[in-house]
Amino acid sequence: MARNLQVAVVGATGAVGQQMIKTLEERNFPIETLTLLSSARSAGKKVTFKGEELTVQEATPDSFKGIDIALFSAGGSVSQELAPHAVKHGAIVVDNTSAFRMDENVPLVVPEVNEEDLKEHNGIIANPNCSTIQMLVALEPIREKYGLNKVIVSTYQAVSGAGAAAVDELHEQTKAILEGKEFTPSVLPVKSDKKHYQIAFNAVPQIDKFQDNGFTFEEMKMINETKKIMHMKDLSVAATCVRLPVATGHAESVYIEIDNSDVTVSDLKALLQDAPGVTLQDDPANQVYPMPADCVGKNDVFVGRIRQDLDEARGFHLWVVSDNLLKGAAWNSVQIAESLIKLNLVK
Amino acid sequence: MARNLQVAVVGATGAVGQQMIKTLEERNFPIETLTLLSSARSAGKKVTFKGEELTVQEATPDSFKGIDIALFSAGGSVSQELAPHAVKHGAIVVDNTSAFRMDENVPLVVPEVNEEDLKEHNGIIANPNCSTIQMLVALEPIREKYGLNKVIVSTYQAVSGAGAAAVDELHEQTKAILEGKEFTPSVLPVKSDKKHYQIAFNAVPQIDKFQDNGFTFEEMKMINETKKIMHMKDLSVAATCVRLPVATGHAESVYIEIDNSDVTVSDLKALLQDAPGVTLQDDPANQVYPMPADCVGKNDVFVGRIRQDLDEARGFHLWVVSDNLLKGAAWNSVQIAESLIKLNLVK
């Protein structure tokens, strides 16, 4: 496949959409024409791509004629409505929302983990949840070599996962607190939920709405998506997801139990040192470990603080950090598009 | 014991010392004379107690003549040096540093958990690490009723645990970032360690220095102190400790495995509803859960987000929040002093 492609970005003016456009440019993705789509409200805005000014157009069912690949990141309801039209027009949809992730006809793909699943696509490919992606990039090499039984994760998630308005709220609220001024939370933890809480100088144990079982949807996404992507229906996975006063960069404290009982920390470091998409930052003696503030703008998943559990020989603890807008969203979507080309799946 | 006591606070001008003085006043602790002690540098400062202005004096080996109870919170080296002198003069020392915590002749006490251990004291009683205390207040009623096998905790800790200078650094750095100005970290994560990192809008997976086994001392404190306080040498405990851009209020994501296999979330809620020192805040449908910003200035430990693990019937997840300067330090110390009186241990 040598021809350049017709590519569309839906949600082009959003936090993730902007990163998608930037990533397509940085990767020099083979684009013939880039079509930028958005809601009627944002249509008309100008966006620069490769030095050229492009005008954002309103996304409609007919926007996808002739499009080869459409990257969606405009919310689940937009994907529900427009992705089927894009597919009907012959486009392959890479959807960054949760709309189709658990649909058994839709591959849910982290290229470092299950790129081959792309071959089973029926027009739509789902991009997993940000916190799932970075965890699996770190765990897949371990699972492949040493087996994996159990995952218990506690997250430290940035507000940009809740969109640009959440970042604004964090900054404005922080400023108000420092100046001793009043403020009224209105976006976090979940814009559409009943109550809103202070995020500045706080930690909020709610991301997305609650399910009846006491877990949030974010936690259930991590649990269910991990099992689907790793093709391990019976893997034990538990998650507690917490929002922090950090703009960008998710961190995760991950406990795992592997099958093999004579693996050392050195074995895991050697494995992750060479793992695709991973940068190992693990040198406690020199205070080297990953942090959200250091990962911003980088595509990789950063892993450090690898320790063997003191009681369970098959147990290990890891600290996993990545830019939630890049590997957690825009970069993983563009990477899926690159894999589609590599695997010759774009007609 | 009806008489009023001679009480000393060592480290009276520090973040915890100030809270101790406030707590002694609020609790109307039976004080005849309150002696405030500090380093030579802070001596001479004035502190108000019950409407009276007291002058802080330099702590020396002779400061403890006639003192009944001395509350220490001036750093481990001060406790190492002066606590033995205080004991020689007949005082009972309640030490908030890590100096004597793992000494087998020193009881390490959380009154809700092991108040009876006070009876074994030899002059010094150690106040546990802040993050250990709040976790054990939440777990002890569960351990007592249903048994406890395993604890895996990831913490979300406030900077005030590293002292007043760390709180200043958080606020000044946050302001600098919002104003786009330069800044140079110099306090966090550990003042005496080689490198210092940004804490504002970040999450730093290092509290205290690293040990050779890859765990930090803070993590090892949680592990070892939990076993000592609960008298469970063989309990499996693992910790990952993380510093957040929060001034006051530690949070913890705690996973436990209990002995009993037919316990429900309702059972645990009912148990914790009536547990000493615990306030249950657990109503996901109404977005009720504990948060650091809500716990400041309160003595209790707040517990919420109680969920049964989806794979392990004996596994439960909890979210535990408390004011690290109060139950984590000043209030637990004063509470120990109250227990000493109650148990008739003050001669």
Automatic annotation (TrEMBL), chains A, B:
What SUPFAM superfamilies does its record include? Glyceraldehyde-3-phosphate dehydrogenase-like, C-terminal domain (SSF55347), NAD(P)-binding Rossmann-fold domains (SSF51735)
According to its UniProt record, the EC number is: 1.2.1.11
Q: Which UniProt keywords apply?
A: Amino-acid biosynthesis, Diaminopimelate biosynthesis, Lysine biosynthesis, Methionine biosynthesis, NADP, Oxidoreductase, Threonine biosynthesis
Q: Name one Pfam family in it.
A: Semialdhyde_dh
Tell me the superkingdom of the source: Bacteria
Catalyzed chemical reaction(s): L-aspartate 4-semialdehyde + phosphate + NADP(+) = 4-phospho-L-aspartate + NADPH + H(+)
> Can you tell me which residues bind NADP(+)?
T13, G14, A15, V16, R41, S42, S160, G161, N324
Cite a single GO BP annotation.
'de novo' L-methionine biosynthetic process
Q: Where is the active site?
A: C130 (acyl-thioester intermediate), H250 (proton acceptor)
Q: Where does phosphate bind?
A: R101
List the pathway annotation.
Amino-acid biosynthesis; L-threonine biosynthesis; L-threonine from L-aspartate: step 2/5; Amino-acid biosynthesis; L-methionine biosynthesis via de novo pathway; L-homoserine from L-aspartate: step 2/3; Amino-acid biosynthesis; L-lysine biosynthesis via DAP pathway; (S)-tetrahydrodipicolinate from L-aspartate: step 2/4
Tell me the residue numbers annotated for binding substrate: Q157, R243
Q: Which GO terms describe its molecular function?
A: aspartate-semialdehyde dehydrogenase activity; NAD binding; NADP binding; protein dimerization activity
Q: How does it assemble?
A: Homodimer.
Q: Which family does it belong to?
A: Belongs to the aspartate-semialdehyde dehydrogenase family.
Q: What does this protein do?
A: Catalyzes the NADPH-dependent formation of L-aspartate-semialdehyde (L-ASA) by the reductive dephosphorylation of L-aspartyl-4-phosphate.
- Name-wise, this protein is Aspartate-semialdehyde dehydrogenase
Q: Which organism is it from?
A: Priestia filamentosa
